[in-house]
Amino acid sequence: MQSNAALEYDYTVAKLFTFTTILFGILGMIIGTLIAAQLAFPELNYLLGEYGTFSRLRPVHTTVVIYGFTLSGVFATFYYVSQRVLKVSMAESKFIMFMGKFHFWLYFVGALLATISLLLGYSQSKEYAQYEWPIDIVIVIIWVSWGVAMFALIGIRREKALYISMWYYIACFLGVAMLYLFNNMAVPTYFASGGLGSIMHSVSMYSGTNDALVQWWWGHNAVAFVFTVPIVAMIYYFLPKESGQAIYSYKLSLLSFWGLMFIYLWAGSHHLLWSTVPDWMQTMGSVFSVVLILPSWGSAINMLLTMKGEWNQLTENPLIKFMVLASTFYMLSTLEGPIQAIKSVNAIAHFTDWIPGHVHDGVLGWVVFMIMAGLFHMAPRMFKKEIYSKNLLEAQFWLQTTAVVLYFTSMWIAGITQGMMWRAVDEYGNLMYSFIDTVTVLHPYYAIRALSGVLYLTGFLMFAYNMIKTMTSGRELSEEPQFRSPMA
Amino acid sequence: MFHWLEKNPFFFSVGVFIVIAFAGLIEILPNFAEASRPVVGLKPYTVLELAGKEVYKKDNCIACHSQLIRPFKSETDRYGQYSLSGEYAYDRPFLWGSKRTGPDLHRVGNYRTTDWHENHMWEPTDVVPGSIMPAYKHHFTNIADIETAYAEAVTVKNVFATPYGDEFQATKEAWEAHKAVVLAEAKTITADMKNKDVKEAVAAGKIPEIVALIAYLNRLK
User: Residue B36: what pLDDT?
Assistant: First the structure.
């Protein structure tokens, strides 16, 4: 964790991915806010003809924020962090520079094509794995090119021991590769039928219950390896760097890492409780979800204890505030998840708005906060400029924190209300409510959630503005700041 | 050992891979063969129903509708018999969904009719006041891709041994011959519909998405 002023790192690729993080973040959150508003005000479904309904846009929202925004953030931080912890510059190898740029441009074009394909309705209809097979092939090439760049950089490293962040980036690469390949196994019908029909169409290699198992083995662990693992990589680097504090415990980071790797994969079947999946698998999913609290809280507590004796920084440095709140939301979310994975709770929670509520306290509070803090930390070092405005950063923090709280509280209430109404019976044992009663009752909560979306999006636009102003008109820095990022 | 792994990225990566691959092997593999066995009497989807399933996928109905009835009295009272694994044997992909913004549809064919769906897809609030589901009027004009649906039937027959008849062959001629069967099935649906444009399209040999979708929804029982 020492600074190395002698080496001039090359941030070309990190900068490119920083731009796409901002771009896809804005796009994904605009769509998210729109579809949230559609549930409260259905007339908003008709803004874009058949391309603008809730159902068509929902996967566009999820994939743009997961694979557009979050992965851009992962790649941006990776190309920044890896050079520094490995003590090599990308500029030292023409090959690595080429792979990095190739990775970026193919990713950018691929992301646009993928998004357009979903808008047009080319979809496997498997959640978070909607892309049809031609897009899947492009994604595999993108992923492999990231892997090549990563291991080439590791190959020429000067620092022999891999820092904790690198463990997590490697795990992200391997985990997503394995899961994505297996879940997207499909047979293109055009080739299997002697050239009939659409070339885009394919059928899944797995059917029914098996398909469900493979899908949620993927679906749950996309959360693990995109929303958790690389974000933990970020906080292990950026929190000590920004605060000037050493990681509290190496042993705790070891336990958390290997624990997370082993346990997370078992928990996928908690998405299939009370389904036709064999009972023992459901129970395994439940049990391992509860055990998962240990490695998750291990990382989070390690982060909070890293700030031991330095809590004054929380009031002085908004970036510390973002990161500490991020790990706190990570704790909340990783406690909430296991609670929902208990079978009796799941009987009420499953299929309701409590689930998107849970997802969003994790992603809005943990993932997005951490990525923004990481990019704010990188900006003065990549662009050699002071962060444009501290006041804007403070305002953004409170606006977005309010938005997250509004989001999850409204969805908790909505979800539990609906779950209870579905099962409510009168004195004769008949169902008390028709389905539509359980929909109309949710209107106020959907309206609050839409408002929360507007607030959060506004906060993100403030982030984007602050970043762009930093690049264009921040005060020049004569030397690289060691710890705390300078801001005006 | 961990210190050593941290200095040897290759073995580190192998280690991580083994640790993460473990759970999948143990949880997914053992039941694989059994879980894909169909219930007795289960028929594969007709080409028209497959085309309807494509519409269901294209407009991503799973965003709001599940196809999985859980074994609780409150669910069997509302939707019918709880779902069995073997009922999904020909579902590629599975379409259970994970969110019920609208009701479950696994047995919607038992209690909704062609006529109901026609009115509902045109304007949901006319049928269910207070509904927040958008209208899907474009299903009445967009033409369903039945050739791709036929290609799917042939594919699952050849690759996964789904029991389709001998007439399902991977040739243009076989497809041309089967078109009449699909059109005849479409006409049994439009007989119960009143939208003039849809009726005219089917009479002219084109099948609007709504017809295929209703065939699929009626099949869900």
Answer: 79
Q: From CA B67, how far away is CA A481, in angstroms rounded?
A: 56
Q: H or E segment at A186? A: strand A186-188
E strand intervals along A198-339: 202-204
The ipTM assigned to this model is 0.95
Query: For residue A469, how many other CB atoms are within 10 A of its CB?
Result: 16
3-state secondary structure of A351: strand
Query: Is B83 in contact with A425 (Cβ distance < 8 A)?
Result: no
Read off the DSSP letter of residue A265.
G
Task: Supply the pLDDT for residue B82.
Answer: 97
Pairs of residues, one from chain A and one from chain B, whose beta carbons lie less than 8 Å apart: 269
Question: Do residues A81 and A153 make contact, with C-beta atoms less than 8 angstroms apart?
Answer: no
Burial of B42 (0-12, 13-18, 19+ CB in 10 A): middle
**Under-70 pLDDT residues of chain B:** none
Amino acid residing at A74: V
- On the 0-12 / 13-18 / 19+ scale of CB atoms within 10 A, B184 is exposed
Sign of CA dihedral B183, B189, B192, B193: negative
CA B9 to chain centre: 44
A279-291 vs A318-340: helix axis angle to the nearest 10? 150
From B66, B77, B148, residue closest to A189, measured CB to CB: B148
Q: CB neighbours of B191 closer than 8 A, spacing ≥ 6?
A: none
pTM attached to this predicted model:
0.96
Omega of the bond leading into B93 within 30 degrees of 0 (cis): yes
pLDDT per 10-residue tile (average), chain A, 488 residues = 66 98 98 98 95 97 97 98 97 97 98 96 95 96 98 96 97 95 95 95 94 93 92 98 96 96 92 94 95 97 96 96 97 97 97 97 97 98 97 98 98 97 96 97 98 98 98 94 94
- Ranges of each domain in chain A: 1-238, 351-475+482-488
Task: Locate A348 and state its tokens.
Answer: 């009420």
Are the C-beta atoms of A218 and A201 separated by less than 8 Å?
A: no
Q: What dihedral angle (degrees, nearest 10) is formed by the CA atoms of A336, A340, A342, A345? A: 120
Among residues A182, A58, A213, A200, the alpha carbon closest in space to that of A135 is found at: A200
CB A74 within 8 A of CB A13: no
Q: Are B154 and B166 in contact (CB under 8 A)?
A: no
Q: How far lies A132's CA from each of A122, A141, A201, in Å?
A: 6, 15, 7
Q: Which of A134, A227, A217, A147 is nearest to A180 (CA)?
A: A217
Predicted pLDDT at A1: 44
CA B49, CA A220: separation in Å to the nearest integer? 30
A352 to chain B, any CB pair closer than 8 A? The answer is: yes
Cα B107 to Cα B90: distance, rounded to the nearest angstrom: 16
Find chain B residues with C-beta within 8 A of A258's C-beta: 2, 19
CB nearest to A207's CB, from B36, B99, B142: B36
Q: pLDDT by residue (tens digit) across B24-34?
A: 888 777 777 77
Residue type, A209: T
Closest CA to B183 of B45, B44, B47, B55: B47
Residue found by looking up tokens 């309705």 in the block: A121
In a mutational test of the A interface, the residue from B132, B156, B159 whose CB has the highest number of chain A CBs within 10 Å is B132
Beta strands in A433-476 (DSSP E): none
Q: Selecting from 3.90.180.10, 1.20.210.10, 3.40.50.740, 3.20.20.70, what CATH number does the domain A1-238 have?
A: 1.20.210.10
Q: What is the number of other CB atoms lying within 10 angstroms of the CB of residue B52?
A: 30
For chain A, how many helices (H) and strands (E)? 20, 2
CATH (residue range B47-219): 1.10.760.10
Asked if B100 and A352 come within 8 Å (Cβ–Cβ), the reply is yes
